[in-house]
Amino acid sequence: MSLLSSSRCAVRSATLPPELLVACLHTSTPVYVRGQRTAGGSAPSRTRLVKDLTPTGASGKLKVARQRDPPPHTEKDRRNDGYSSKMSQRLSRREEAKLPVTAPTSSRDLPQALRLSSGPHARDVMRNSEVRPRDTSKTKVVNPLSEDFDLSKSAKSSSRYTEFTSPPLMDGLLKSVHDVLGPDAEPTPIQALALEHLLKAEPRTPEERARYQQWLLASETGSGKSMAYLLPVLQDLKLAELSGAPRRTDDPSVPRRAMNPRALVLAPTHELTRQLAGFAKELLHNVKLRVVCASRANTPSRKKVTAAKMAEAVMDTPDGDVDVSSEIIMRPVAQQRPVDLLVGTPSKILELARGRGWDYEQREAEDSQEGDRRSHRKITVGEPEMGLADVEWVIIDEADVLFDPDFQEATRMILADISAARGHPVPFEPELNLAPADAKSRPQPTPIEYPFNLVLTSATIPSSLAAYISQFHPSLTRLASPHLHRLPSTLKTEHFNWTGGNRDADIEHRLRRVWYEDLQRGQRPLSKVLVFCNKSARAENLGAYLREKGIANVALTRSSDARKRGSNHHLDGFLRVRHPEEKGESADASASTSAEAAAAPGATSMEQLKDVPHVMITTSLLSRGLDFAPDVKHVFIVDEPRNMVDFLHRAGRSGRAGEDGKVVVFGKSKGRGSEKARVVRQKVGALKA
Ligand SMILES: Nc1ncnc2c1ncn2[C@@H]1O[C@H](COP(=O)(O)OP(=O)(O)OP(=O)(O)O)[C@@H](O)[C@H]1O
């Protein structure tokens, strides 16, 4: 085992600035300026971020990666000794370019109307900001989220993992890491911690396998959390397979289903599950394990799938391949090769584990409450297609979303189902109040010990999630990066003032400037731009306007038809694709033409923008977890962010993994709402790394 002691990458306890003078980012939480509470609104908010991750249980641990010296994802680091060789190259390209600074400099240029959501709290912020002195020179606002996430109480931690080496990684996985990231890639701080705490270099003994653990991986967007959990999990699955570790389903009394995965990854959107499954597949080119994405079948209709096609699919799916058409070939494949890792949304996983239509009674009740006539339709509950008895790992990606009020019941239901299938049922309350407000007054619940390893991961830790963890998982080990709750350091911010005329025309104007600047400095391919709106209708209208003006774009909302195809083709040309052959496989005609056209040396004019989408307009649907391509260099936030957690995730789709990027926040500079906008601008500024 190579134990490197380079201080540059040492991971040890972080000491953050002791004083936390903060404006809380969510509009429903108080605003603090220089230790003085200046805005009201004390009602708890589910997007309020946690201050202190220190575990309450005696056995819980908090480990914070020490920021590298120089830190990863910064110019200095890449210039001097390289976070990776690819990153050094990107840096030099960026230095050559030297874009003019476009952000406004005087306080009059501050955006005035990043509209706060309506409601009492928004009014509170307004009222209080009115009484606050306008001169901001004395009111320094530091990272608003650090108030809620105090890392200064971290335990000391020194990581040996300053490089990816074999061991502790098995050769095949190490080779894949180098194939994916390049030969000089080094672990990011959160990966270093994950290698130290989650990864086992040797097969676990039966006693070790029976000791289940729980971890939280918390680090900023684009910092490599997916690889941080995938490497230890995949390695553990492979080592267990090689050592012939028994499965529960070997016992004939335990029901076997078509699929009996050993690890589950839950994520909030189908797009993210597909991308995560694809990434896991990339890491398995040299270590054969079977990954299945439980997303919808990649064909228009299941009826059109013939037995011959099914057989063909089975034959053509080599080990380690992602099988996005899992619904079609699930049964025959499962009879031949077991599934190792299954990735899916909570509702899809429940459907597989409980049978299609399992929740029909509940839906019937809901439908009849709403007076839906179809409520008397006949629904047959299908056979469960997945057994949960073999599940040894559960990863909850974007854990703050999957434990929010919309998802938490389904998420906890899955965890309870797995526990029951593994012979250790845990208590399950459908209605669980995770809000931290009255946590102290409620009786302390009994901690839950799940009979599997549990990993939660997110770039933002709201206080509701922290309260849930403290109450139910007090011994969970918290692994955090010192940049948590900050924007990536390579992401610039700009505030664009509405002119007061047509806002769509303002957006068009700013878009054209992006490409003009690209052309000026000879950048190929031209930048892609991700535009976030708050509402679907706004996204669609903006898309139509830009098309009229000759800017091809994709407007993608929750109900877009393109999403129904069950693949990520609707994101082609925007998501990161590493291997050219995969680009060719997955891209539809327009997207591949786009990549080629944009990359061609002679492609200089803006003409191509008419035919090839360089703009994707969406809502928060695509703000979570998706790894966008490095040429998505701009994120436009054209509606006020609902809260700064949402802002952090939207902005974080660019500037990933040390790439440069820019987030442009649109707002009014004059008239009503200017004070609110000034506060928002301060908050955005305070999120900078
Ligand atoms: N050690 C590394 N060095 C360089 N690039 C890396 C490293 N680890 C991961 N990456 C790349 O960084 C990108 C972002 O990784 P990933 O999507 O896992 O980030 P994340 O932390 O999960 O972000 P988010 O919070 O937005 O979900 C990916 O393209 C990944 O391949």
From TrEMBL:
GO molecular function: ATP binding; hydrolase activity; nucleic acid binding; RNA helicase activity
Superkingdom of this protein's organism: Eukaryota
Classification via InterPro entries: DEAD/DEAH_box_helicase_dom, Helicase_ATP-bd, Helicase_C-like, P-loop_NTPase
Pfam families xrefs: DEAD, Helicase_C
Protein name: RNA helicase
EC number from the UniProt entry: 3.6.4.13
Catalytic activity reported: ATP + H2O = ADP + phosphate + H(+)
Keywords: ATP-binding, Helicase, Hydrolase, Nucleotide-binding
PROSITE patterns tied to this protein: HELICASE_ATP_BIND_1, HELICASE_CTER
Residue ranges of every copy of the Helicase C-terminal domain listed in the record: 506-689
Annotated SUPFAM superfamilies: P-loop containing nucleoside triphosphate hydrolases (SSF52540)
Compositionally biased spans, kind Low complexity: 587-604
Domain Helicase ATP-binding: 206-479
UniProt region (Disordered), positions on chain: 35-140, 360-379, 578-604
Listed transmembrane segments: none
Feature: compositional bias, Basic and acidic residues: 66-81, 121-138, 360-373
